[in-house]
Specification:
By secondary structure, this protein is α/β, with parallel strands linked by helices. It is 24% helix and 21% strand. Strands 5-6-7-8-10-9 form a 6-stranded mixed beta sheet. A 4-stranded parallel beta sheet has the order 1-2-3-4, covered by helices on one side. The longest helix has 24 residues.
Length: 207
């Protein structure tokens, strides 16, 4: 595996349905920009994935509120997934309490390149054929307020490169014991890296 390499993009916490707040007396001339800000920031994430020609996008929850979704956020996200599909970039998405797979509207189909993880079981998918790289993604939708149990995400040591994808609270020592190469985490607004060696565990924060 030392002769092979691939690049992926890890993002989370778009919070498309949560408008910017905490700013008083906003001039009318920029109010539209503030309304569009979550969408603009999220779109730049997908732009970067395409421009950098990554092999995979992993999304770790809190992208939108699927329990009471806004039509704009649903259409936006589907359009972005279709853009990635057009560039043959698969998506692995582990949601939070509000954007797990069970809440996605059945009337709106997602591209076949999108794998939306369940909240009830840990699922493992292999992307070796698509990426020409021995990669497995082990994922489950989670709860940003709940502790992540590292032992739920099983990977064999010395096998394929492994990414664990979920949403929740975690500490570095608890994750480091598992033979997971990269923990793609979501559920917090600030960017934080819990581990760097010999494994990586990272919260990208909201864009």
């Amino acid at each position: 595996m030392s002769d092979l390499s691939f690049r992926f993009l890890h993002a989370a916490d778009f919070q498309l349905d949560l408008p910017l707040h905490g700013v008083l007396d906003v001039p009318e001339s920029i109010s539209g920009w503030l309304i569009d800000a979550p969408y603009t920031a999220a779109e730049r994430v997908f732009d970067t994935a395409i421009q950098e020609r990554v092999g995979l996008v992993v999304l770790a929850g809190n992208l939108l509120d699927l329990i009471a979704p806004h039509p704009r956020s649903l259409c936006f996200l589907r359009e972005q997934f279709e853009r990635l599909a057009g560039h043959a970039i698969p998506v692995c998405w582990a949601g939070s309490l509000t954007d797990s797979a069970v809440h996605w509207p059945t009337s709106i189909s997602l591209p076949e390149t999108v794998h939306h993880f369940s909240a009830t079981t840990v699922d493992t998918i292999s992307l070796e054929k698509q990426l020409k790289f021995p990669l497995r993604v082990i994922g489950r939708s989670g709860d940003e307020g709940a502790e992540i149990r590292a032992t739920d995400f099983f990977a064999e040591a010395g096998g394929s490169f492994s990414i664990a994808l979920t949403c929740g609270r975690a500490e570095g020592p608890g994750l480091s014991a598992q033979p997971i190469d990269y923990w793609a985490l979501g559920g917090r607004g600030d960017r934080k890296t819990l581990l760097t060696e010999p494994r990586t565990a990272h919260y990208p924060g909201t864009p």
